[in-house]
Structure formats: C-alpha cells, structure tokens
Specification:
alpha/beta, 2 domains, five-stranded mixed sheet, 11 helices, 11 strands, elongated
Length: 252
C-alpha cells in the first residue's frame, strides 16, 4: 500500500506538471525598448500582438535611442530594442550584449514649418534668416544627430548658432514635432515618418548625401527573453505595412 501511495503521488505531480506546461504555453513578459519616433505605429503593432497572444505582457519603454541604449548598457532589463540609428546596434555588439541585430526600416529627414513659419521658411537656405526660430532634437536622439550633420554639411551650422536661430534641442523627435505643431517654433528638421504622423507641413526633403543613410534597426539582447523577442520582431516584420503607412520604407 505504501508503494502504491507514492506511485499515486508521483502520478499527480507528473499530471500537474503537464497541465502547467500546457496552460503556461505562450505566457511571458517582453521588455520592449523603442525609439520615440516609432511610437505611433509600434503602439498599433503591440496592440495587435497582444490580441493574438493574450498571455504575453508587453512592457514598452519609449525614449530617445541614446537614452535607451544607456539603460541597456547599465543592465536595465530589455529583451528587444528598436533604435533609430544602426550605430547603437553596433555599440551593443561592442558591449557584448547583442544576440542578434537586424536592419528594419529606412527614413529621410525633412524640413517642416509651423503656421507662422510658412511665410518665413521655404527651404533650408532660409534657416539663416534673421528672426527664424529653429528647433532640432538633442544629438543623443539620432534625429538630432542627423539634422545637425545635414546643417554642418550645408555649411550653415555655425551661422545658425551664432545668430541665435536654434531655439531649443528637445530630447525626442516627438517633442520637436509638437513644438512646431503648437507654433512654438518656425521650423524643424525631423524624420519624414514623424512629420507625416503629426500631419506637419513638409517644405523640403533633406538629401541622404547630407545626412547619411538613415536606418531604423532592432537588437535582440543577450540574457533576455530571446525567443519571445524574436517572435515579436517577426510579428512586426509581418505587419510592416503599419510602418509604411507612417512614411517608412522597409529595409531590404
């Protein structure tokens, strides 16, 4: 009887383990770090992913790519990181934290104007005019770094700074877009995708010869939930039409 009793107990443990493995399938938590410029389409993709994977919790952290990279370097929990610059994927690889890196989307920088700025700024050459108020993102945000590089390559960066035309350098591209949308500045240089997402007036597309290739990329982080990170990335790739609607092009 004693032997049979323990056989019964072991059988219960085995059965409960099988039930748990089935019930818990698909469960998990994804720590997702996303460049602020991707917020609108990524919110849509996350919502669709949650509908198909009800047992998975997606925790999204939106900020500038540089700020997110700093958090990853410091050891904050991250499974999947979407950056607005391939440079940060290379940095993660140097830090030996990269499990896999993928080039995801392409974009351009554009010159946008506010209602007040429409009469002042018709092209980037007008950014040196007296009385123009320009905003670009902080250089820690790739958008700000690309904009600064373009103005330097045009040979007008020093003139803009000397004349006090550059009024602010917000930490994210969305903050720049909101400033122009609310008529707090005459003009800004931001991603085409963000400009379209905020329905802002584009007066000029900045050549890639001035900014360099603009690549939005993804990194699966070592030590995180790599399997779930890959599943979400593949899901985002399958729903790339959402990003195209906001002005990106797929990287091929």
């Amino acid at each position: 009887m004693k032997k049979c009793f323990w056989c019964y107990v072991l059988t219960l443990i085995f059965l409960s383990g099988s039930v748990c493995s089935n019930a818990c399938a698909g469960e998990g938590k994804l720590n997702l770090y996303v460049a602020a410029g991707l917020k609108k389409p990524m919110d849509v993709v996350i919502e669709n992913f949650r509908k198909e994977n009800e047992n998975i919790k997606v925790v999204a952290n939106y900020a500038s790519s540089g700020s997110l990279y700093a958090q990853i370097r410091e050891g904050q929990p991250c499974d999947l990181y979407f950056s607005a610059d391939w440079l940060y994927i290379e940095k993660i690889e140097k830090d030996q934290k990269l499990a896999d890196g993928m080039k995801f989307l392409k974009d351009h920088e554009v010159l946008i104007v506010s209602k007040t700025g429409e009469g002042k700024v018709k092209s980037v050459k007008d950014l040196t005019k007296k009385g123009v108020a320009l905003v670009i993102a902080d250089p820690q945000a790739p958008n700000g770094a690309y904009a600064e590089r373009a103005l330097k390559n045009l040979g007008i960066w020093e003139e803009i700074n000397a004349a006090g035309i550059l009024k602010a350098r917000p930490s994210t591209v969305h903050q720049v877009a909101i400033m122009v949308k609310e008529d707090q500045a005459d003009a800004a240089i931001i991603f085409q995708s963000v400009a379209k997402g905020h329905k802002l007036k584009i007066v000029e597309t900045i050549s890639l010869d001035l900014t360099g290739e603009i690549i939005f990329a993804a990194a699966i982080i070592k030590g995180g939930n790599q399997k779930l990170a890959k599943e979400f990335y593949d899901f985002a790739r399958r729903h790339i039409a959402v990003f195209i609607q906001y002005g990106w092009q797929p990287y091929e």
